[in-house]
Design a protein that fits this description.
heterodimer, A: 425 residues, alpha/beta, 6-stranded parallel sheet, 4-stranded antiparallel sheet, 54% helix, elongated, B: 262 residues, mainly alpha
């Protein structure tokens, strides 16, 4: 088997807008078309990965050129996309390129948000579905499993999933650095806005016990408070309530400051100096810049948070580079394994293994017998070689024989039985 | 016995170096190595102290070598006791160098066993007083490390510059509860140390208090920590202020320890 027998046809968020991805076959959640794929000429194994950002069809084929063509027609058949357009929106990888591609996808190096962890779970699901439909054989079994281990390696050896890359996550992460555990803490939301609500939601999943919503118009506050199962309050209650608040997110449309340093200073004494984390996502700003000068008060505005996110993104890119190196290394190893998946190299490997064992054992035995004529020594050597050859005769015949069924499966079995892939992990 | 001390000393050096290496490269295997190293060093150190006790027939806190080694031992076991109850990320990185420095001082001092104890030292109060006081210092040293870590971490969060320490140090909350724990354990021990010291002085010199420099300084240290405790638990001087105060308090305590062991 050659690495070239593996092909991947796919579209993702980079190559095609969602309007195109929607039109593809099986983009809905209906049953995946395994039988149709297996019926394509040349196709021996297949797996389908379909997520909201990508569709990938991984195929092992006896006749890659032909299958690739049919595959493209199949994928775009139900849409009104012409052949030329389809080439623009999709990518076709073969051989080493395909191996690299799947490894990168699994390791989340190809994701919209590099390092996001969901893709690996989705890939595992895709493999499971394919295996349950009997669409995987020796090659894909090994290929997909390898892609899982590569993803795991990238995750543990680099810091790719390390730090928050969205503003609301960055806020949560900072809150954790200040408060440790967020269990039992209280959040106050001043004003409303998508970003503020998102941050509040993230905080809620971290075990925040209470949300207080403050708004100029009390009705709006009540409405939003209901969503978070929290309390509502008017702007006048803001400062008295501050005593029990740990995290404050402000995003009003006000042109003036909502909270000044003089307002908060006395509150800090009442709070016994418990820390206060202030997040200002409003433009123009709601919170007094000087607040950050107070002891145990931490003020972050939108620029500060964006800055944090930017730093984290560069950090991730750097880590992604290290991930790419791991992928390159693993691609090479897998390519070597694929090359070994032919009859001739397998026979050679088997013979070599027998040779090595014979040599080692002969050396040990002959070393222990001192008074042996050269002629006798030769005979013993010959005998060892003959035993090995006789012993290997049947397994080799078995490999060469034309059995019905998957040739790859048979080879993989023999290689595993004689442990011929040990060096290649 | 000398060999055992050297073994312990080198073990601590090894732990410190591995912890520092871990701090830079964040390789978890290195940390595991440091943790086991710490346990081995702590066990060896304890064994050494016990052997010395049996060989000398008195608690080994009679000269500089013994005192400093015992102080290091109490930091180690204070650290391990803390480790067992709470999790403070990378705490070992900051604690192990202090232990190693103390062990270095102990290694440089004369390791001769004092055969004939001065009459003043031949008292049941010696092991009790010195043991309790040094254990108190152990916890104060831990609070000191926590204070430094707090200030480093807070500076990065406050200035919004996330450099080297931000990801490597624990949350401010964890460091503050470390501060609380160490004060709550260390201060009662210190009080007990002063009371037993007074009883010992009474036995030896006939008076409870003589205003010797070491006594005066002990009192000052005690007052400082009493003030820290008071401010912390009643007025809410926690976090940053508490961190600064335990750092100052420990520096004064170090001078006291030096005078006391003379």
């Amino acid at each position: 088997m050659q690495a070239d027998n593996i092909i991947i046809l796919g579209v993702n968020h980079k190559t095609a807008p969602v309007a195109i991805r929607e039109q593809l076959a099986f983009s809905g959640d209906s049953a995946l078309p395994f039988s149709e794929l297996m019926a394509l000429e040349g196709c021996t194994e297949c797996c389908i990965l379909s997520t909201c950002n990508r569709v990938e069809i991984i195929v092992v084929s006896r006749d890659p050129d032909k299958t690739a063509q049919l595959l493209r027609r199949f994928l775009f058949g139900q849409s009104d996309i012409t052949d030329q357009e389809s080439e623009k929106y999709s990518y076709l990888h073969r051989g080493t390129e395909a191996i690299t591609h799947l490894f990168r996808v699994g390791a989340s190096l190809d994701s919209m948000i590099v390092g996001e962890p969901q893709i690996l779970g989705q890939l595992k699901q895709a493999y499971k579905a394919s295996a349950e439909n009997n669409c995987t054989g020796a090659i894909l079994n090994r290929f997909l499993h390898k892609s899982f281990t590569v993803a795991k390696r990238v995750r543990t050896e680099t810091n790719i999933g390390g730090s928050a890359v969205s503003i609301s996550y960055a806020a949560v992460e900072l809150a954790k650095k200040i408060f440790g555990d967020l269990q039992g803490k209280t959040v106050m939301l001043i004003g409303a806005g998508e970003m503020a609500e998102l941050a509040a939601e993230h905080l809620l999943t971290q075990g925040i016990s209470e949300v207080i919503v403050v708004n100029r118009t009390f009705e709006n506050a009540v409405k939003l408070a209901q969503r978070f199962n929290g309390k509502a309050a008017g702007l006048d209650d803001l400062i008295p309530m501050l005593e029990d608040v740990d995290i404050l997110i402000s995003s009003t449309g006000a042109t003036d400051l909502v909270l000044k340093q003089e307002d908060v200073k006395p509150v800090m004494n009442q709070r016994m100096n418990r820390p206060l984390f202030l997040i200002d996502i409003a433009v123009p700003r709601d919170l007094d810049e000087k607040l950050n000068k107070l002891d145990n008060v931490y003020l972050y505005d939108i620029d500060d948070l964006t800055h944090v996110v930017d730093i984290n993104k560069t950090e991730r890119d750097k880590e992604a580079g290290r991930g790419e190196r791991i992928v390159t290394e693993e691609t090479m190893k897998f390519g070597q394994w694929m090359e070994g998946m032919e009859i001739t190299p397998s026979i050679i490997a088997l013979r070599k293994k027998a040779d090595v064992i014979c040599k080692a054992e002969l050396e040990r035995t002959l070393g222990n017998i001192k008074d042996l004529s050269p002629k006798a020594q030769k005979s013993i050597e010959k005998m060892a070689g003959a035993i090995a050859n006789k012993f290997l005769h049947d397994p080799i015949n078995y490999m060469k024989a034309d059995h019905p069924g998957d040739k790859g499966e048979k080879l993989a079995f023999v290689r595993e039985l004689f442990d011929l892939d040990r060096d290649q992990g | 016995m000398k060999l055992l001390f050297q073994f312990t000393f080198y073990a601590y050096i090894f732990v410190t170096i591995t912890y520092l290496v871990f701090f830079f490269n964040q390789n978890k295997q290195v940390r595991t190595l440091a943790r086991y190293g710490m346990l081995i060093a702590a066990a060896g150190h304890l064994l050494y102290t016990l052997l010395r006790y049996f060989a000398g027939g008195h608690t080994p806190i009679t000269n500089l070598h013994e005192t400093v080694s015992f102080a290091a031992l109490s930091i180690t076991w204070g650290y391990l006791s803390f480790r067992w109850r709470y999790k403070v990320k990378n705490f070992g990185v900051f604690v192990s160098p202090i232990i190693t420095i103390l062990m270095l001082i102990a290694a440089l001092a004369s390791q001769e066993m004092s055969r004939e104890l001065a009459p003043a030292l031949q008292s049941i109060w010696l092991p009790i007083h010195a043991g309790v006081a040094l254990l108190a210092y152990g916890f104060l040293a831990l609070a000191f490390c926590g204070g430094i870590m707090y200030l480093l971490q807070e500076r990065e969060i406050k200035n919004k510059r996330f450099g080297f320490f931000y990801s490597r140090l624990p949350s401010l909350e964890a460091l503050d509860s470390l501060n609380r724990h160490c004060l709550a354990t260390g201060f009662p021990l210190m009080t007990l140390g002063i009371i037993t010291g007074m009883l010992w002085t009474k036995q030896g010199a006939g008076a409870y208090w003589q205003w010797a420099p070491k006594e005066t300084l002990s009192l000052v240290t005690w007052l400082i920590y009493a003030a820290i405790i008071h401010l912390r638990f009643t007025l809410g001087w926690r976090r940053r202020r508490a961190a600064i105060m335990v750092i100052i308090g420990f520096l004064v305590a170090l001078v006291t320890l030096y005078l006391a062991s003379k």
